[in-house]
Amino acid sequence: MLKINIVSWNVNGIRAIYKKGLTDTIKKIDAEIFCFQETKANENQLSFFIKQIDSYKAYFKSGEKAGYSGVATYSRIEPKKVNESTGVAVLDSEGRVLLTEYKDFLLFNIYFPNGKASVKRLAYKMKFYHDFSAYCRRLLAVGNKIIVCGDVNTAHREIDLARPKENEKVSGFLPEERAWIDQFLELGFLDAFRLFNKKAGQYTWWSMRSGARERNVGWRLDYFFVSENLRDNLLDCRLLPNIYGSDHCPISLSVKI
What we know:
There is one protein chain. By secondary structure, the chain is α+β, with helices and mostly antiparallel strands. It is built from eight helices and 14 strands. The strands form three sheets. It has a six-stranded mixed β-sheet. It is globular, with a radius of gyration of 17 Å. The termini are close together.
C-alpha cells in the first residue's frame, strides 16, 4: 500500500506567496502532490526557483489575461499524462483546469470562477459548473477514478460559512450554486472533508478585512471531491488553517493506493 498526500491551496498569487516562504511551507507539509490555484502568472513569468522546488516537477496552466486566474500542480510522482486542455471551451478559456493522469486516478486541479462581479460572470460560473459535470459524467461512465480539488467558490451548506443568513443573496451561497454541488455529488462524488469532519466553524477562506481570520468569520470554499469508487481508499481529509500566506488556507487529502 502506498499512502499519497495531496494538498490543494488557492495561493492568491504564486510569486507573492513564494516571497512569503512557499518553499518552507511545502517542506513543512511534505505532500506528494500540491495543487495551487489563482497563481496569477504565466509560466514564462516565473523564476527558475519557483518552477524547480525541491524534488517536485511543476505543471502549469495559465489564461491569456496577464496576472489572472491560473493553476499549477507540483508532483513528486510522475503522471502518465498531463492535460492542459479538456476540449470544452468554457473549461479551457481562462486557465482554470489542469488534469494530471496517474496510474490509479485522475486528478483535476481547478480554480472555479467567482460569480460576484456581475450577472454575466455568474452565468459564466454556472455554465462552467454544468459543463464540468458533463465532462466528469463521461469519465465516470468508463470507470475512471477521479479526484477533483480546488477553490470551488461556493459554500455548500449553512454550516460552511459563518454568516449564512446575511449571504443568502450573495454569489458563493446562492441557491443555484449550492444546488450544483448537490447535483455534482449525486453524479457519484463524495465531499471528502465532510466524511471526516462534520463540525461547524471549519473554513478555508476569510476576508482580509476586519480581522476576519482571527475571528474565524469565514467560508469553506475549497474542496476535495472524490469519486465513489475511491471511497475505500480515503484515509483522511483535513483543513490546514494554521498555514498562512494567502486569504485561503490549504486543504489536505490522504489516500491509499
